[in-house]
Structures
1.
Amino acid sequence: MPDLPLVYYGDNANAPYGVRDSDDIYQLTCRGVERLWAEGCDLVILACNTASAAALRRMQETWIPEGKRVLGVFVPLIESLTERQWGDNTPPREVAVKHVALFATPATVASRAFQRELAFRAIGVDVEAQPCAGVVDAIEQGDELLAEALVTSHVEALKRRMPHPEAAILGCTHYPLMQSTFQKALGESVKVYSQANLVAESLEDYLARRPEFVGSGTRSAYLTTGDPKRVSGKATQFLRHAISFESA
């Protein structure tokens, strides 16, 4: 959706969230969502598995006002894995994949949110979760060799507990940048689920069904709690076109 105006908020001053406790993650996530509401965004996507896992349910149950929506990123992933839509409330059923490896931040693993949501929709699925400490920091610092070494080490650690996973979930929005390394370490027979395309397709479908959440904005904006110059440079490097951040 290249023509859709988006407001992006990067909490770079407090990242990574994956090593924080749940209350801290909740407070930081609420602060970021409020800043996006101030920009006129009625629909917010938590483009962070840790925030989605540790904060979203609490936010939805107690905090989000009428007329606003906050959605997470692992819902489309579970829809794809179980081959059923989120609104399908029929009882859990057998699915094709029985052995799933989950690679995520320590906070996402500790929340068990992925296993909880999966259990509502599927039965007989064995999930082995591997907390991948250090990978986000290495990616953020641009240290590709360290990131590759850490990914390989984490995959080897998981395979000692689950030698033959059928599918693997990259449960952090940084990890798709290392998808080829995960795939190589896991082996070609393992299907690797990466969120980026799944979330984009899900958002496109959501906005087609709920056009009132498209909003009236006419330009994209990029906000950061960190150093705008440094974050702009990193974003431009990753996306290969100029991105200019403002202070949030």
2.
Amino acid sequence: MRIVVVGGGMAGTIFANNLARRLSSELKAGKARITMLSASDKHIYQPGWLYVALGRMTPDELEREEASLLEPEIAFFVDPVQSFRLGESHVVTRSGKVHEYDLLVIATGSRPVPEDVPGLKENSVHCYSAEDALKLHDRLQAFTGGRILVTVGLPHKCPMIPLEITFTMHDFIRDRGLIDKTEFYYTYPIGRAHSLENVATWASGEFAKLGVRQETFFNLKEVDGAKGCVRSEEGSEVKYDLLVAVPPHRGEAVIEENKLGPNGWIPTDRYSLHMQGDHGEKVIVLGDTTNLPISKAGSTAHFEAEVAAENAAAMVKTGRAARSYDGKVFCFIEAGKDRATYAMFTYQKPPEPRAPNAAMHAFKMAYNQLYWASVRGLM
């Protein structure tokens, strides 16, 4: 069986490693082959960008060689796919090489597109890359007072980042002695502070304690940098001195270019994780690339990859899938520089955030280091 994994991020790496261990004997006997095609030779721990923005981590701490994280039986190539020819069961890479498959796994991720909102890219900062996180850190260091506006576009990677960046910036500004000179203002596109109702209720209570103003039903329309204001589709206008954005996201351009799904999101069965439509029986979609109505979080990718790998191995060994994905997600929520809580939920069970505490923050700090074992599928 020929398995081709497109994308070397969290979902693709965990899937490939998990499957390689499950099919160890088949790989050694030549009955199975796993190939990974990536756009980069590096693997980035993306949640760490928040800590870079706060001056608590450096970009080099978030990076490893992708090849060093993979099981030795996996054939790894830095040669991104340019053409998906699903009807012919093969993909074509940038170098022109053709890779045939019996099972294709698409885990290409997502990208921020602040340029989709007029003026947002030019007038805001965010933390969705090392470079942008460092820019945000510089702006926070240079800030001397005024209004910090946190504004959110949908959909976006990491469901908790609007809350986390607000809470952690509040502590950062307080530690600089500027909290009495600063107003925090938070906007969100729907009628509450977060897409998950219980998380929104918890967050609104925490915001009230800190004096964070919030405005809901605020969908980004444009940013007027000359006047220092953000306008919403609903007609509201909010002034800012520092604009921190959670920009809207799209799937990777190659998905749009190959017309696999609107805005780069591939229609995906929520339980089997197979692509919906023609040729979907040979295609699994993981992580941010799906159009599933669940959080685009690292843990989503992790749990999906484990289910998909178990099913792929079962198909090789028994001809049938082993289990379904239940929508499981686990998200840490940093509630300041030294407090955190979490949200755990499935398709059927909503999250129930608890009061933030230091122990959960310590757990998150530990996970930042344990991630490299996690992505290898060892935990």
3.
Amino acid sequence: MLLCTVRGCGQPLTRTGPVYACPRNHSFDVARSGYINLLQPQDRRSKYPGDTAEAVHARRRLSAQGLFLPLLHAIRDLAALSPADIVLDAGCGDGYYLGALAEHTGCQAHGIDISQPAILAAARRYPHCQWVLANADRQIPYASQTFSLVLSITARRNAPEFHRVLRPGGRLLLAIPAPDDLIELRGPSRDRIPVAVADFAPYFTLAAHRRATTTADLDAAAVADVLHAIYRPLQPRPPAPGRVTFSLDLLLLQPVDAPPAQSPAASR
């Protein structure tokens, strides 16, 4: 169930035609492409938050080449979804991973992102999923214990909210860049697993870890797309053809039974 994102409200939303509304008469339009815009002015740090249209198009071109298929298959295997699962992808981007998982497994899929170009692209490509434009860094606009799986794939993370929206026995699949991710473009990076596990420790325990890695020989145009698409851009450089490594550490976490107390706004 979707919740109203107007500050101080948090009431359930009901759909009537192209509009969602709460009992306090706050209403939200469904875009013609099918996504729901719940983004509030206070949830923006810029006029155009999240991924730019350029970054979204770059990722779409890369995924169309099949570059991310090995990563997708690893995520699918670790998630072990069934048609009975209800899945949230928090920071879903253009919906590539969630949309493909829903098509393959028949699960019920919901994606949320703060980028309007990303959500628009997701809604157009995967109309069988529900797509929400909102800021999951502040709160996830779904009722407590809605989902059996939450995905966070190279996105910002909100441990208290992830725990709140998971059902008992649910799980969280966290994907973070591995030390060799894009090593040819930015050199080796640190192991992010200890920090991630520590950040989630009050709410989750680590159940499984898998590393998914693939390499591809890219032309200059594809390398340029990689440079545009990554979350934290590198220093500008002339793109040159070459081999590029894509690598993710996949962490499957289970919620603890008694998490720290949450604020009233986060416990709706």
4.
Amino acid sequence: MNHNILLVEDDPNLGAVLQEFLELKQYKIRLRSDGDEGLQAFLEEKPDLCVLDVMMPKRDGFDLAREIRMRDTNVPIIFLTAKGMKEDKIEGFSIGADDYVTKPFSAEELLFRIQAVLRRCLHIKQEVPKTKFSLGAFSFDYDERLLTADNYRQPLTSKEADLLKMLCENKNTVLRREIALKKIWGDDSYFNGRSMDVFITRLRKYMRNDHHVEIVNVHGTGYKLLERAM
């Protein structure tokens, strides 16, 4: 399989060398030279993996990775950087990086890192996505868009089902507003935010009879689906 890789590197010489080397290894490379161009290419191409330089003009690699993560929580990201400080690596991994390569490095080293990350992510993708969830007394079938309990049956709209699925996947942890908005509504505008609040209110109403399940607001951040022991 010829994987598509987005390579964002502001050093034209290094970028050209890496592009040529990786294309010889049968990867399809989209090379961009700054964070803004990188984001546009990501939105257009939906690559299988992103290789991002950290220090770039217009939008650095960390900012670019945050934008990518708001739109896609699964695409693997490898950072390239001249920074070797522990704090920078921690920031990179906290954003959601899969690996971190410190300059100077060889093209062969980057190739091995890419192969390892893709093998790991391919294994994850091959697992069957979870579509059925248990929430207190409720059962939620995402494919059927249906929330059920004893003598209770609540059909869900597509957005209600999408939102409840994201909450279930992040159960007892915070689901960030901007991530849910960009994945389900397409952007995190004010009006879409108000729309999502309405859908949250609906989901709370559907589950109001089970006090073991609650959707709580996390001020300034998002929502958390809590499931307490029965």
